[in-house]
Amino acid sequence: MLPHLRSVVGLALAASASASALTVLADGSNSTCLAQDAIQTASLFTGQEADAAGIQPGQAKSLTDAANFINFCSEQTLTNGRQLPDGSCNGIPMGKIPAAKNMISALITKPLPGDRLVANVTFEILVQTRNLHAGIQTNPAVSYYNAPQDVDEDGYVLGHCHVVIEELDSLRTLIAPDPLKFVFFRGINDAGVGGLLRAEVTGGLPTGFYRVCTMVAASNHQPVVMPLAQRGGQNDCARFAVVDLAEDGGYRP
Ligand SMILES: *[C@@H]1O[C@H](CO)[C@@H](O)[C@H](O)[C@H]1NC(C)=O
Ligand SMILES: *[C@@H]1O[C@H](CO)[C@@H](O)[C@H](O)[C@H]1NC(C)=O
Question: Which residues, if any, are the signal sequence (predicted)?
Answer without folding.
Answer: 1-19
